[in-house]
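Sequence design from tokenized structure. All designs in this work follow the same two-part layout: the structure record, then the generated sequence. An example of the structure record is given first.
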């Protein structure tokens, strides 16, 4: 997400915020917390549980369901799904007869399933756990169901460079686990039987294959999430702050969460994404305003009327 100062000849963005990190940018998780604790939410079966006043006996599923996008993260719809599972090559389309009796489920065992019809930064990704192929009209949806901890081993290296310091990777693992845990309690991906997808819309997963350093960070923090008053927080994170960290207002919250405080951050001062500009043609702004208001009134100016604690513009008037 970006906060912008709008002008009649374009838009200048002075604060870069992304919902989640990508593996080739500078990283900073510098938002200061007030009274957030790290809680071990595991029970004796390694199942993450709600405690400290939450509904008794309520637990998260042991498995997370990840909706996989196609190459380039353009769509959930796959014209073909092909790969290698347990040494055997497979290929499916919506016309494959196997779907006459319902979804097709593949289990790759310890070696995982290589999906050759998807390209990621690592090449053809390998997915662990189960792959469920669901016919959806003339295309296929692909869902990876696996344990939360195994999922995190595919998230952390995709969100933070594996070369980062051990404590940074461990902090990233706790944030990623907290975010995923929260999503598993929610409504999931709208219109699909999945908790999250594998893109920046949630957390990047499987773009980089598990690395030794990041897998160790996941294992060292196993079961740990961030909580406030016994409840998991919304553990958003971002890659660059442009000098001051943002609160959850940048993701649409009406006001900043009480456990978040914007602080000065110089960690990303050498990042190419710390300051940047983008120009939006005035006619594009006119079209967006017309769509939102349902009128054809001419757009004369745009004014920033509200900024969040970090100075990012979050509300405009035209």
């Amino acid at each position: 997400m970006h906060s912008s100062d709008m002008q009649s000849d374009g838009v200048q963005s002075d604060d870069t915020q992304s919902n989640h990190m990508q593996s080739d940018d500078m990283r900073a998780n510098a938002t200061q917390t007030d009274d957030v604790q790290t809680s071990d939410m595991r029970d004796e079966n390694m199942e993450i549980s709600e405690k400290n006043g939450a509904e008794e006996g309520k637990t998260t599923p042991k498995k997370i369901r990840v909706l996989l996008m196609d190459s380039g993260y353009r769509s959930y719809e796959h014209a073909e799904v092909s790969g290698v599972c347990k040494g055997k090559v497979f290929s499916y389309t919506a016309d494959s007869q196997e779907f006459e009796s319902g979804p097709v489920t593949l289990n790759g065992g310890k070696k995982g399933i290589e999906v050759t019809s998807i390209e990621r930064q690592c090449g053809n990704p390998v997915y662990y756990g189960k792959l469920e192929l669901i016919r959806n009209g003339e295309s296929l949806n692909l869902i990876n169901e696996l344990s939360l901890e195994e999922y995190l081993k595919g998230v952390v290296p995709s969100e933070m460079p594996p070369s980062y310091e051990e404590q940074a990777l461990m902090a990233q693992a706790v944030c990623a686990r907290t975010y995923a845990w929260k999503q598993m309690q929610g409504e999931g991906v709208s219109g699909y039987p999945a908790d999250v997808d594998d893109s920046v819309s949630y957390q990047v997963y499987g773009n980089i294959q598990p690395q030794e350093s990041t897998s160790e960070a996941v294992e060292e923090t196993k079961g740990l999430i961030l909580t406030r008053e016994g409840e998991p927080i919304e553990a958003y994170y971002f890659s660059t702050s442009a000098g001051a960290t943002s609160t959850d207002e940048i993701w649409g919250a009406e006001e900043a969460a009480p456990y978040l405080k914007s602080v000065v951050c110089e960690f990303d001062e050498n990042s190419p994404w710390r300051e940047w500009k983008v120009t939006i043609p005035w006619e594009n702004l006119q079209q967006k305003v017309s769509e939102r208001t349902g009128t054809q009134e001419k757009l004369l100016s745009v004014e920033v009327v509200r900024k969040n604690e970090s100075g990012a513009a979050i509300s405009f008037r035209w």
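The radius of gyration is 21 Å. We note this feature because it recurs in several other targets discussed in the main text.
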